[in-house]
Amino acid sequence: MRKVINLSRQFGAVLVLVLLLNQTLLAQESIGNIPSTLKWSERMALSIMKRHPQAYQIDGQTEPKWDYVHGLVLTSFEALFKHTKDQRYYNYRKQYADATIDENGSVASYKFDTYNIDMVTAGRILFNLYETTKDTRYLTVLQLLRKQIAEQPRTASGGFWHKKIYPNQMWLDGLYMGEPFYAQYTVQFENGAKLDDIAKQFELIQLHATDPKTGLLFHGWDESKQMPWADKTTGCSPNFWSRSIGWYVMALVDVLDYFPKNHPKRNELIGYLNEISNSLVKFQDPSGLWYQVTDKGGSEGNYLESSGSSMFAYAMAKGANKGYLPKKFKAIANKAFDGLTTRLIKTDSDGQIHITQACAVAGLGGNPYRDGSYLYYVNERKKDNDPKATGSFILAALELNR
């Protein structure tokens, strides 16, 4: 009997592999050459699908993994599907959800007790999937992520820790990872009851992480001021990392979608967006792009970085389109997008496009230790087609209708 069960399991595993291989081959066949006449958003999306026929493969994964980079890219695919109605973009997003969520609504690669706020943002793709399919697996995961937010450790003043292993620390990245999901959930399922709590996260960052000299935001803030990278007076990390500021401005324009016009905190958030956007313009390179370390353009080792530049282009374009920012920011975003397409995009003979000069990853503390120094940021490895760049590039292209 045991042999029969084992053979059955082995056959089932082989069948799954065969089905995945068939799906991969079909996906590759269905794309073919990518026309240069398409909008940049579709050219990038189709390039991603051609390189990674299974959505979980984004960022080089060989097996399904619940992760924030998939959340960003597939959020851009959701926006693209709404714009084009091309079913391929919906299917690609659903494919990821179904690869990572089992029949009981469990996500094997998600670890609740790490309280990693990065893991929340992928849940954004499930709101629409649940609405369109009524599949309760998606609702189960949405509720689990909401439970994480409810239990997420906080600083003494009420800010979400970035992770359990980073006590008392708020990173700019975390505002994007948690707040747009939190805002959509509370509006959709709780009548917006927690919007004040969401606004508070931005208030804390504005109050504690803003540099009075440049108006830029430091990557991290340690309320306890105990981390070796933290300034002993302010608790801030020592440098400005463009992608971290990019996460922050994207978080602002995305959460504002859920704040009613009469909400008392809405204008405050719009004010934050204007402050940081005006500060960023001062550091925009003549190419339209921004440097890896935002305020040190031209310094040795610094480089024009694609993910932060794409994020700024998206946030400024959306801010101008929604009326949060003056119209001049649409032109600033277009200049940034021109810089991306002329300097950092490469095109293959089959029409595939590649975005270059993206910082692969950066953080603070941990092991090996990351000190937040200038040399640390400029020496982290670069990566072509990093999903933090491809996803934000699609969003920027859509907002600019390029």
TrEMBL record:
<keyword id="KW-0378">Hydrolase</keyword>
<dbReference type="GO" id="GO:0016787">
    <property type="term" value="F:hydrolase activity"/>
</dbReference>
<protein>
    <submittedName>
        <fullName>Family 88 glycosyl hydrolase</fullName>
    </submittedName>
</protein>
<dbReference type="InterPro" id="IPR008928">
    <property type="entry name" value="6-hairpin_glycosidase_sf"/>
</dbReference>
<dbReference type="Pfam" id="PF07470">
    <property type="entry name" value="Glyco_hydro_88"/>
</dbReference>
<dbReference type="InterPro" id="IPR010905">
    <property type="entry name" value="Glyco_hydro_88"/>
</dbReference>
<dbReference type="InterPro" id="IPR052043">
    <property type="entry name" value="PolySaccharide_Degr_Enz"/>
</dbReference>
<dbReference type="InterPro" id="IPR012341">
    <property type="entry name" value="6hp_glycosidase-like_sf"/>
</dbReference>
